[in-house]
Every structure is written in C-alpha cells, then in structure tokens.
Amino acid sequence: MRLVFLGPPGAGKGTLAKIIAKKDGLPHISTGDLLRANIQAKTDLGKEASQYMDKGELVPDRLVVEMVQKRIAEADAENGFILDGFPRTEPQAKALKEMLRSAGKDLDRVVNFDASDETIIIRLSGRRICSGCGEIYHTKNIPPKAEGICDRCGKQLIQRKDDEEATVRNRLEVYRRQTAPLIEFYRKEGLLENIPADKDVKELEALVQNLVS
Ligand code: AP5
Predict the structure, then answer these.
(1) How many domains would you assign to the chain?
(2) Quick check: CB of 8 below 6 Å from ligand 1?
(3) Which pLDDT score is estimated for 164?
(4) Cα 197 to middle of ligand 1, angstroms
(5) Is 35 among the domain residues?
(6) Positive or negative torsion for Cα 151, 153, 158, 160
(7) 7 is a domain residue
(8) Angle between helices 90-101 and 181-188 in degrees, nearest 10
(9) pLDDT of residue 213
(10) 83 three-state secondary structure
(11) Least C-beta-crowded within 10 Å: which of 22, 38, 170, 201?
C-alpha cells in the first residue's frame, strides 16, 4: 500500500500514521520528522529548513522533494509506505506522481483528515513530543503515565517550537493557501478518502484501517 495522509496541522496524521504503520508493517515517512532530524543533526538541509519551519512557512519544494525521493528509494519502502505531511503543494504532488510513475508505481489512497479549527487549536496547544523517540502525547487527550516523561523510552517530553500560538495561526493560513487545494487535486485523481478527524483515536484507527485494508 502506498498511502498519503493529508490534512491540516494537528489533525492527527502523525498519531494515526504511527499506529497504522506498525500494524501493517509499512514505513512511516513524515517529512516534518525528517526535517527535524536534519535540524538536530545540524545538516545543511536542517539549517536551511529551520528558517522556514520556525515561522510556520513551508520549506521550499526542491529541498523536500529531493529528501522524499531519497527516502522512498530505500529498501523498506519498496512495497509501500505512509507519507505523512507530503505532498503539501501542487508541485510536490506532481513530483511524487512522476517519481512513482518512473518506477512503474502509483499511489493507492490519499486519506484526508478533516478537522475543525477548534479541534486543531486544542490538539496543538496540548501536544507534547518525546525528545528521545518522537512519540506523540497530548496533555489531556493522550497523557503519559508520568507527567512530562515518555512511557516508551523514559526521556523528557517537550513542546514543539512551532506549536506556539502565533506560529500555529500562520501554519493554518499556509495550510489553507498551499495545501488544501490538494484535496481537489486528489479527488480528481480518484484517490481521495475523507475522514472526520474530530473523533477519538480508536474510532479513527478503525475508520482508517477499514479504508486501507
Ligand atoms: P509537520 O511536522 O508535518 O507538521 P504538520 O503537518 O503541521 O502536522 P503536525 O505534526 O502538526 O500534526 P499531525 O496532523 O501529525 O497531528 P499529531 O498526530 O501530532 O511539519 C512541520 C513543518 O515542517 C511545516 O510547518 C513545514 O515548515 C515543514 N514541512 C513538513 N513537510 C513539508 C513539506 N512536505 N513541504 C514543505 N515543508 C514541510 O496530533 C496533534 C495532537 O493531537 C497531539 O498532541 C496528539 O496526541 C493529539 N491527537 C491526535 N489524534 C487525536 C485524536 N484522535 N483525539 C484526540 N487527540 C488527538
């Protein structure tokens, strides 16, 4: 299965992608995670990307497309993947189509997480991520067993820099302007599946699993 998880920031794409990827044995390819790993490793890509990410802007297409092209060429992605947070612009969607087409492949489904602004604000303001393994928590919805500590690896939970209120507002604006048009793009391609993302994790898991199995 070659899947794309599409949707606004904070809709729950990463949370569901981790669950479905583990269950179905697919690699979870999050461009946000890959870019943050580059920032942490202080690579040239990380240095350039952080200038955009800190403001809630999109990283230029050429950088992200090259990064994804390399990642999906790795052996574990040979028979499928979940792309989370990519594509985010029409040029990225066209580049993805072309890179798959040239390998004789195609996408199977694009799952669009449809969430209200209210849900997004609540989810992003309470999000905490593990500084060690990247596990995602929420202070109220999905809290860790011990406050501020990851259940999986025991490392400290932190708040993402781009989850501060002003940056979230800009990310939503950027989503509406640059990414939301992909809903229509993939509808026309006959690949779009809409899910109401305002539900709890278990309900969403069942909905998504049903669509992709
Ligand atoms: P990225 O990391 O991809 O951020 P995003 O798309 O804005 O998505 P988020 O990670 O914020 O949200 P999510 O939908 O994964 O929600 P989550 O599962 O964490 O990108 C960051 C930046 O990198 C971008 O702004 C851009 O600069 C750059 N970038 C990345 N990809 C790019 C690209 N292709 N092109 C250009 N630039 C790119 O959940 C959110 C919270 O809600 C969590 O606390 C979670 O615990 C909770 N939650 C999740 N599901 C539920 C539920 N069902 N019920 C209750 N709570 C829930």
Answers:
(1) 1
(2) no
(3) 87
(4) 13
(5) yes
(6) negative
(7) yes
(8) 30
(9) 77
(10) strand
(11) 22
Ligand 1 centre to CA of 120 (Å) is 10
pLDDT of residue 161: 86
Length of the chain: 213
Q: Is the pTM here over 0.85, yes or no?
A: yes
Instruction: Calculate the dihedral angle through the C-alpha atoms of 168, 172, 173, 178, rounding to the nearest 10 degrees.
Output: 130
Q: List, in sequence order, the alpha helices (H) in 11-60.
A: 13-24, 31-40, 44-53
Q: Which residues of the chain have pLDDT under 50?
A: none
Whichever domain contains 42, its CATH number is: 3.40.50.300
Q: Looking at the domain assignment, is residue 55 inside a domain? A: yes
Query: Would the CB of 36 count as within 6 Å of ligand 1?
Result: no
Inside any domain, residue 138:
no
Q: Which domain holds residue 208?
A: 2-113+168-212
CA 65, CA 93: separation in Å to the nearest integer?
Answer: 9
Catalytic residue among 13, 36, 123, 128: 13
Please tell me if the CB atom of residue 127 comes closer than 6 angstroms to any atom of ligand 1. Answer: yes
pLDDT at res. 30: 97
